[in-house]
UniProtKB/TrEMBL annotation:
<dbReference type="InterPro" id="IPR003439">
    <property type="entry name" value="ABC_transporter-like_ATP-bd"/>
</dbReference>
<dbReference type="GO" id="GO:0005524">
    <property type="term" value="F:ATP binding"/>
</dbReference>
<dbReference type="InterPro" id="IPR027417">
    <property type="entry name" value="P-loop_NTPase"/>
</dbReference>
<dbReference type="Pfam" id="PF00005">
    <property type="entry name" value="ABC_tran"/>
</dbReference>
<keyword id="KW-0046">Antibiotic resistance</keyword>
<keyword id="KW-0547">Nucleotide-binding</keyword>
<protein>
    <submittedName>
        <fullName>ATP-binding cassette domain-containing protein</fullName>
    </submittedName>
</protein>
<dbReference type="InterPro" id="IPR050763">
    <property type="entry name" value="ABC_transporter_ATP-binding"/>
</dbReference>
<keyword id="KW-0813">Transport</keyword>
<feature type="domain" description="ABC transporter">
    <location>
        <begin position="6"/>
        <end position="250"/>
    </location>
</feature>
<keyword id="KW-0067">ATP-binding</keyword>
<dbReference type="InterPro" id="IPR003593">
    <property type="entry name" value="AAA+_ATPase"/>
</dbReference>
């Protein structure tokens, strides 16, 4: 069996915080990550989810060798991340949505040349890989513009190309779509899906965006106060916490409130009954069954399904004390 790309055993990290001065000086210890154990196999796409302060960034910093664990063990690409940071850097790509890894005053083209030297890519290998990424991420128009002049969306695409230039085995994205508009988010997701399909890169992603989770991952790990709260599929989690999906139906003609559709709760009626919103819990009924019942009462012109948002799902999981 091949070794997992990531394996964590009893992984913990404490931070010591000092407050006050002199005699009032106090020392307290925050356990940011507590006894985490998981493995991620090559080729997987995993969402690493949790509320603010749950311990996601701390975990990623340990996986990439930026931080040393207080106790426990972590291996990334078969290496001890802190001891073999340089070697690991050649095997992984990391993007922090809110922090740039590019040279601020240089254009992307020069950053890529510098990164190629760091990763010891020859000129031909650099050109081939760079050209592919420039084309697929549509970087051509601003390749020679200093990074500080780029829009957020342009910069993030530039960062992703930088992280993938050396064709890493593992791509770690920390909130990659944060602050992007809907169109830019979608383009980025499309690119990441294509990248995975063509290169088999393992993906680990932290996000607060349900669409990222749904589109890009096939497994999620949820942490709560540094501890593992869930490891499985998103659908399994939604079923477990009973988060509602919402069906919005647009009807051909005004209809009485649809308050007797089995397995649903009527959330609201708009436009004199032309638009109605019904919530249902996946597992107790299906969208198809709801639609069949609605269609028996009124003719449906259009239908959309709103998924529960990830914050809500995580809140429910925390509240259930899992
Ligand atoms: N350098 C540090 N010194 C002291 N405490 C820290 C440090 N870094 C993180 N923490 C604490 O550790 C806990 C976990 O923080 P972490 O940044 O890993 O959470 P997160 O899940 O990434 O949150 P967010 O979604 O807000 O980025 C928090 O209580 C945080 O305050």
């Amino acid at each position: 069996m091949t070794e997992p790309i990531i394996s964590a055993t009893d992984l913990s990290r404490d931070f010591v915080v000092h407050t006050g001065r002199g005699l009032r000086r106090r020392r307290s210890v925050t356990r940011a990550v507590a006894d985490l154990a998981f493995t991620i196999e090559a080729g997987a796409a995993v969402g690493y989810i949790g509320a603010n302060g749950a311990g996601k960034s701390t975990t990623i910093k340990m996986l990439t060798g930026i931080l040393v664990p207080t106790s426990g063990r972590v291996r990334t690409c078969g290496l001890d991340p802190h001891r073999h940071r340089r070697e690991l850097a050649r095997r992984i790509g990391v993007v922090f949505g809110q922090r740039s890894q590019l040279w601020w005053d240089l254009p992307l083209s020069e950053s890529y040349r510098a990164l190629a030297a760091i990763h010891r890519l020859g000129p031909q290998a650099l050109r081939a890989r760079r050209d592919t990424l420039v084309e697929r991420l549509d970087l051509g128009d601003f390749l020679e513009t200093p990074v500080r002049q780029l829009s957020l969306g342009q910069r993030i695409r530039g960062e992703i190309a930088a992280a993938l230039l050396h064709s890493p085995d593992l791509l770690i994205l920390d909130e990659p779509t944060i602050g992007l508009d809907v169109l830019s988010k979608e383009r980025l997701r499309q690119f990441l899906l294509e990248e995975r399909a063509t290169s088999d890169t393992t993906l680990l992603l932290t996000t607060h965006d349900m669409d990222d989770v749904q589109r890009l991952t096939d497994r999620i790990i949820v942490v709560d106060h540094g501890r593992m709260a869930y490891d499985g599929t998103l659908a399994g989690l939604v079923r477990r916490v009973g988060a509602d999906r919402v069906i919005v139906v647009d009807l051909e003609e005004n209809a009485a409130p649809l308050d007797d559709v089995a397995g649903t709760r009527l959330l609201g009626v708009e436009a004199d009954g032309l638009r109605q919103r019904l919530a249902f819990t996946p597992g107790s009924t299906t969208a198809a069954a709801v639609l069949a019942q609605v269609s028996a009462r009124a003719s449906v012109r259009d239908l959309t399904i709103e998924e529960p948002d990830i914050e809500d799902v995580v809140r429910r999981l925390y509240a259930s004390g899992a």
